[in-house]
Structure formats: C-alpha cells, structure tokens
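Example for tutorial group B:
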C-alpha cells in the first residue's frame, strides 16, 4: 500500500488514541473494486481521491468493537458527523465498499465521519442489544474524536436511519455535545407496532421484548429528556413498510409540545430509504449540517410571533 506523508501522519495521530486498539488505512484495491462491482467502481475510484477510509478496532464497555472513520484528505479543525447505522447484527451492517460510495457523502462535504458496527457485529465482541448497552459504543466515538487533532469537537452532528435513528435519540438524551441531528425513518415507538408483529420474535431475541425494554428504546416516551438546543431534521417516507411513518408523525407532535427545534418532512410515496427522493433528501441533510454544525447557525425562534 502506498501511503503518502499526510496519510501516514494522520494514521499515526489516530494510533495514539487510547480507545483505538488497532487501525489501518483501507485501500481501494482490485479486490475491493471487484466486490463493489463494475457499475460503481469508477465512482468509488473518483471518491477515493478526496477521502481517507480507515477500519478500526476500539474499546467500548471493556471489549472490542469494529468501527470506521472516513475523512477528507485535506484540512484541519474539521467538523464531524457521527453516523449511526441501521439494522441489527449482520442485517444493515456497514460494508467497506460503501464507505467509498454513499457513506462517504459527509466526508466529501468536509466532515470527519465516524461509524460503529455496534457490539457483537462484524467480528466485534460483546452483544448487540439493539439500543441497550450498545449505545455506549456510539458515545465512545466522541471520546475518540476529542483526541484526534484534526477534529473540531465543538462542531459535531449526528445522523441515524431506522435503528440508527433510535440510537440517535438515545444519544441525544444522554449527551450535550451534538450540535444538530438528522434522523431518517427513525424508530421512535416500539410499543405500538401492530402492523409489524412479525418483528416481535426478533425483539425478544435482541432485548427480551418486554414493554419496559421497548419503552427504553422508544423516544416518544421520553421526549422531555431531549435537549432543546439541538435542532433535529426528521425525514420519513409515507410508503415505508419497515418503520411506520406514524413514528415520526407522533414524534414531531411531541417535539412541538416540548419546544424542541425540528423540521419534519414526509416524502409522499417514498420507501424506507427515501429511494425515490434520494438526491433531495441528501441535499436537505447536507444543508442542515452546514447550517447548524459547520456554520454554528442560530437556533430558530420557537415563540409564537408574526403579524
């Protein structure tokens, strides 16, 4: 692998962070291009010229967890995004090839982006509890960023889709360092999922499935714990079959009552991944982070006003 001086310096800085057990630069080599496929390998090659991709093993809860960092090749004092993956166990896990494609979007826009596979996944130790103690795996990422000289930890956003949206809500309730958040098709109510009873067996396997455990993972039941100085962008598709769109509708109502700043967009006829509106939703995400994270934009005035 040919590593230039700047890449070597950044790698050495990351290797000094105590939470990181091991880390290496991921090369977009012939084998990885083959896995990505000829349809996307050219785009990945183009993106690779702008970003560095690292695979890391880090410590959380006393055991090893797999994660990734994707960062711009150039710049210092960079804003950051903590990216919370969706799914559980292997389903929804991060594929290295995607780090050179869609998952590099924030890095290409100037953000150091950091990811966790969560405990028990992708070769990591521990157990994925789908919003239990594995929230610690997300919070440790902040400790890593704090010790990386390239990162400006006064400017950190958080993104999560599906289960990742739930992880984002959990993190918001636990911290004060998230400047803004974007949640796509985020699960906010595990209790009232009448349309998706086929998931009950999965919930039992992941966290026991009790009402008490469901409420712990359902932001709708503890909206009052969310910070009132972290603006949320919530997006959902009205044709989502995985997470009921009413999760976000009811969450928007609760955020309004609790005076939490937010913008809610329902994409008519869009699926779980907002596939039909991908370009528009990506643009909205980048604009949200640029406004509130990169540029430290002023929070909206939520007091009733106007003529």
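The residue assignment follows.
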């Amino acid at each position: 692998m040919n590593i230039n001086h700047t890449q070597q310096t950044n790698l050495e800085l990351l290797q000094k962070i105590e939470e990181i057990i091991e880390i290496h630069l991921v090369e977009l080599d012939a084998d990885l291009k083959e896995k990505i496929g000829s349809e996307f390998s050219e785009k990945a090659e183009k993106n690779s010229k702008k970003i560095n991709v690292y695979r890391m093993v880090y410590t959380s809860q006393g055991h090893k967890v797999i994660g990734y960092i994707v960062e711009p090749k150039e710049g210092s004092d960079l804003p950051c995004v903590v990216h919370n993956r969706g799914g559980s166990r292997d389903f929804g896990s991060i594929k290295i090839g995607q780090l050179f494609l869609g998952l590099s979007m924030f890095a290409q826009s100037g953000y150091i982006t950091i990811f966790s596979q969560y405990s028990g996944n992708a070769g990591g130790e521990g157990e994925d509890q789908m919003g239990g103690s594995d929230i610690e795996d997300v919070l440790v990422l902040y400790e890593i960023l704090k010790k990386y000289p390239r990162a400006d930890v006064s400017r950190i956003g958080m993104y999560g889709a599906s289960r990742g949206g739930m992880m984002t809500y959990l993190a918001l309730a636990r911290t004060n360092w998230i400047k803004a958040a974007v949640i796509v098709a985020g699960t906010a109510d595990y209790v009232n999922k009448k349309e998706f009873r086929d998931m009950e067996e999965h919930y039992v396997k992941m966290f026991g499935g009790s009402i008490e455990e469901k409420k712990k993972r359902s932001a709708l039941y503890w909206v009052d714990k969310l910070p009132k100085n972290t603006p949320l962008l919530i997006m959902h598709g009205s044709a989502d079959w995985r997470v009921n769109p009413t999760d976000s509708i009811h969450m928007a109502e609760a955020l309004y009552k609790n005076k939490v700043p937010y913008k809610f967009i329902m994409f008519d006829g869009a699926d779980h991944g907002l596939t039909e509106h991908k370009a528009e939703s990506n643009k909205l995400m980048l604009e949200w982070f640029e406004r509130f994270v990169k540029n430290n934009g002023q929070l909206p005035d939520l007091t009733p006003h106007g003529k």
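The longest strand covers residues 151-161. Compare this with the pattern of hydrophobic and polar residues in the output above.
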